[in-house]
Design goal:
Blueprint (H helix, E strand, L loop, with lengths): L2 H10 L2 E7 L6 H11 L8 H8 L9 H5 L10 H17 L2 E8 L1 H5 L6 H18 L3 E9 L5 H13 L5 E7 L11 H9 L4 E6 L5 H10 L4 E4 L7 H9 L3 E4 L1 H6 L11 H6 L3 E4 L4 H4 L3 H12 L3 H14 L4 H17 L7
This protein binds zinc ion.
The site of zinc ion has 6 residues, from strand 1.
Length: 352
């Protein structure tokens, strides 16, 4: 079977993405339009001119610090901009075979320069995204991301309260992202206790992306993390791996992202296969597809080409993703059925 045939099979499989940022999913054409409207000081004459500033390109530095410079917060002028990027994120996910997307977004980022309220942006993302998901025949959940560098207990508390109010519309959890070195987990215990106390919001924490395994441990032990974003460094600590293997915490891994940020040296050396073999719950996700210039299908191709995975291994990871989704049991059953039917109808055949 050639590469194109393999790709088409993977693209058609129903996939679950638990780790995708709205702010990293914006089409370049949309950035151009929004940037021109705002008169931003960026090369906005063409997609080619803008691309190196908002996407990772081969030859650019591979560091988290460099990658984070590509997130600009001043694109947005109106709620209709926010509705548009949410809708387009779901359309693009559907085009790569995603049937359940948990889209995460930062109300603070969307409102920082736009004059919009954090609460209003939450409603715009959720209502527009849910409609787009419905139109595409997908299911959806939304996660509110907090950025470590921008901690403000009272502001975050009010966002958490609003997230609870929107939980019946689709907000399912909260996330912590940003600089783990300068703003370690211990600074966020009080606010994550608050999120946990709602008993409505689930918790996922970016941890162990460019830091040590201790950051993964403390996210689970101190911040109530049910899932970990990346968690690459868990592979350096055999005790932690054993503990994770016995528990229910899932690592949301994003191979191309990890390569582009320099958190792994080579895709073939990504720790996902090793963690999987150790019994740790892992799944494959896209992170920032527009900025990485990837799709979830491309991420699955990494598993096939770099790690020698076949459909059997991918089915195992997909089941872990469904099992780890922040959904009620009825929806979990529906998604699991959809995924299982597709894999089983292929007879888990080889991709060779
Ligand atoms: Zn992320």
């Amino acid at each position: 079977m050639n590469r194109i045939e393999q790709y088409e099979i993977l693209k058609a499989l129903p996939k679950v993405d638990l780790h995708r940022h709205l702010e990293g999913s914006i089409r370049i054409e949309t950035l151009l339009e929004m940037g021109r409207k705002r008169g931003l000081d960026l090369p906005l004459e063409s997609a080619e001119a803008l691309a190196p500033h908002v996407t990772w390109q081969p030859g650019q530095p591979r560091s988290l610090k460099h990658f984070l410079t590509k997130f600009h917060a001043d694109w947005y002028s109106s709620y209709s901009d926010v509705e548009r990027i949410s809708r387009e994120a779901f359309e693009d996910a559907a085009a790569s075979g995603v049937v359940y997307l948990e889209l995460r977004f930062s109300p603070e980022h969307l409102s920082r320069h736009s004059g919009l309220s954090p609460e209003g942006t939450m409603e715009a993302v959720v209502e527009s995204g849910m409609q787009a998901a419905d139109d595409a025949g997908m299911d959806a959940g939304f996660i509110v991301t907090f950025t470590r560098e921008r901690y403000d207990f009272d502001q975050w508390k009010s966002v958490i309260n609003h997230a609870v109010e929107l939980s019946d519309k689709g907000i399912v959890g909260v996330d912590l992202a940003g600089d783990e070195f300068a703003y370690p987990n211990r600074q966020f215990i009080r606010i994550m206790d608050r999120a946990h106390d709602t008993s409505v919001l689930n918790i996922t924490i970016h941890a162990g992306e460019g830091t040590s395994a201790a950051s993964v441990s403390s996210a689970v032990e101190s911040l109530h993390a049910q899932r970990i974003g990346h968690g690459i460094s868990a592979a350096e600590d055999s005790m932690l791996m054993q503990k994770l293997a016995q528990g229910t915490v899932t690592l949301e891994m994003c191979p191309n992202s990890n390569f582009q940020t320099g958190c792994v040296h080579e895709l073939k050396d990504h720790p996902l296969p090793m963690l999987k073999n150790a019994g740790v719950r892992v799944c494959i996700n896209s992170d920032d597809p527009a900025m990485h210039q990837n799709t979830l299908t491309d991420e699955y191709m990494v598993a096939v080409e770099q790690w020698g995975f076949g459909l059997e291994e991918l089915f195992e990871l997909e089941k872990i993703a469904v099992d780890s989704a922040f959904v009620n049991e009825a929806l979990r059953k529906k998604i699991m059925q959809r995924v299982s039917d597709a894999y089983l109808s292929r007879g888990i055949e080889s991709l060779k």
